[in-house]
Amino acid sequence: MIPLDTRRLFRAEFPALPDRAAAVRRMVAGHLRDWRLGSIVDHVVLATNELFANAVEHGSSGPADTVTITVSLERFGRELRVEVADGSPVIPVARKPEPTEESGRGLAIVEDLAADWGTEPPDPGARGKKVWFTLPLVATS
Questions:
Q1: What is the mean pLDDT of the chain?
Q2: Could you give the CA distance from residue 128 to residue 62 in angstroms, rounded to a whole number?
Q3: Which residue among 28, 65, 109, 137 is least enclosed by CB atoms within 10 Å?
Q4: Which residue stretches of 59-123 are H helix?
Q5: Do residues 82 and 71 lie in contact, with contact meaning Cβ atoms separated by under 8 Å?
Q6: CA distances from 31 to 14, 58, 65, 88, 102 (A)
Q7: Cross-sheet strand order for the sheet of 9-15
Q8: HEC string of 11-59?
Q9: CB under 8 Å to 117, separation ≥6 — which residues?
Q10: Which of 6-10, 15-19, 22-26, 114-118 has the lowest mean pLDDT?
Q11: What is the per-residue pLDDT across 70-96, written as a single tens digit (0 to 9) for each?
């Protein structure tokens, strides 16, 4: 078992294409299972998938763009943080879609699953933004 006080981080860049979502889900799930965090895999994968889909649909200007996914253990292993970075500076806004609408629920899903979420500027030298969410972790013995 990996002690939760050990610093863990992985980052991967994906083409901003809808068909890459399955690879994002597999990568996130695999790393979480390797970190012995299987109990939160479903919530993290679903929330990450929603942010990736938003980044592809609203944060990219075409297939040459990329989306960067970063997953890390923070606060001495007491919190999991996922960041999804894209090239658009436009900040996402949660919507209240009509019941008959087929989209517009992604950020509401993230809000329901996560302890917190938000946006921040990109890393130095990069363009766009990061959208992140966090989940508290409970240490198991």
A1: 89
A2: 14
A3: 109
A4: 106-113
A5: yes
A6: 16, 27, 24, 27, 31
A7: 9-15, 66-74, 79-86, 129-136, 116-120
A8: EEEEECCHHHHHHHHHHHHHHHHHCCCHHHHHHHHHHHHHHHHHHHHHC
A9: 107, 110, 111, 131, 132, 133, 134
A10: 6-10
A11: 999 887 778 999 999 999 999 998 878
Q: How far apart are the C-alpha atoms of 72 and 67, rounded to whole Å?
A: 17
Q: What is the pLDDT of residue 139?
A: 57
Q: Which residue has the tokens 């996922």?
A: 82
How many whole angstroms separate alpha carbon 79 and alpha carbon 132?
Answer: 13
Distance CA 57, CA 102 (A): 14
CA-based nearest residue to 59, from 133, 124, 127: 127
So what's the pLDDT on residue 71? 96
The better pLDDT of the pair 8, 56 is held by 56
